[in-house]
Here is the input.
Amino acid sequence: MAKPKIATTSLAGCFGCHMSILDIDERILELGQLVEFDKSPINDLKRFRGPVDVGLIEGGCCNEENVRVLQDFRRHCRVLVSLGDCAIMGGVPALRNMIPLKECLEEAFCHGVTLHNTNGRIPNDAEIPLLLDKVYPCHEVVKIDCFLPGCPPSADAIWEALLALLHGKPVELPYELIKYD
Amino acid sequence: MNNTINLVVDGRPIQGRPGQSILEAAQAAGIWIPRLCYSKGLVPHGSCRLCTVYVNGRPQSACTQPVAEGMFVEANSQRLLELRRDLVEMLLIDGNHFCMFCEKSGSCELQALAYRFGITAPRYPYLWPQRELDASHPDIFIDRNRCILCARCVRASRDVDGKHVFGFYGRGPGKRVAVNAHVRLADTDAAVTDKALEVCPVGALVPKHQGFTVPIGQRPFDQRPIGSDTQPEKAPKTR
Here is the structure.
């Protein structure tokens, strides 16, 4: 039987959740035996090679590219997991949600006190993904099957949840492993 | 005169005293009813509705309803857990709760209830309301992003501190905690030693210069669910 496949990505996140995946220590060898990695920054694979069993999403959606990647994950993954507070509620990037987007951009590119931007304009290049009006949690964009809160979720929480998902069991974490910080 | 009142809570016969609330009588008997606006020593407010129980089939807030002879109380059933989960999830999306960097994380009662109820993500869309922060006072700040309008500070300042520093203004989604000055907390009698600060269940009323003093893992709700001192409970299935 072929190994189950997992894929991971970091949208509007800080890669802290991915660091927490690596923080499973020597169990990473076991994980290598257990699963095959498809698209993920861990193996630097940029495109999906086929359907995947479990997709882990770090970060929320702050721009159009995040939305496209998230939709691509939803299409390819049987089970999609919001990994960490940013995927679940937007996290630190969502601090801008209470401020109109125009004000945010003007503060960053036109009026900032430490700013050096000679033309005083907000960058508008086709290469730069367009920002969304606010940062959206993943479950407000696509269907999410499982939530692992934490900033980051602890390595033990990730490990326990992955084992359950790979064995097709419900994710039931002990009290100490569900944390929002 | 007989001063004992007999009632039944979750199928268990318990005794209460005249004037005692259902919440307090249950607590004395080792039954913990979830609560947010209730704080021991303050006049009950009955506003958070988290302690809602069914009394002879009718919903009542356990912190304000006095015990009565022969009451049948349903305090911790599956249908009440569902309603309480809903309330906590609505509180989580109604404010701007950034647990990841909040000084109150680990000792926050709102967060602790969410943990106890096994909430991994609220099912409602986040509202991202505009809320004001008041850092004018040298020793205290108010972060209204985190305020749940439980009125603990209002009652503590009025009844315990004797200062009337806090109140409310506005209605519905526009309701906010106000200070007894033209604009700023700095212009009130508030002091960092006030009971009003101590009783805030969330990180809305916070002393300055002393955040993050207890290491992660040793904070009140890191290892054991809120209410465990009264009634130990295994955390329910997460979702």
In short: The radius of gyration of chain A is 18 Å. The helical segments of chain A are 16-22, 27-34, 64-76, 85-89, 101-111, 155-166. Chain A has six helices and seven strands.
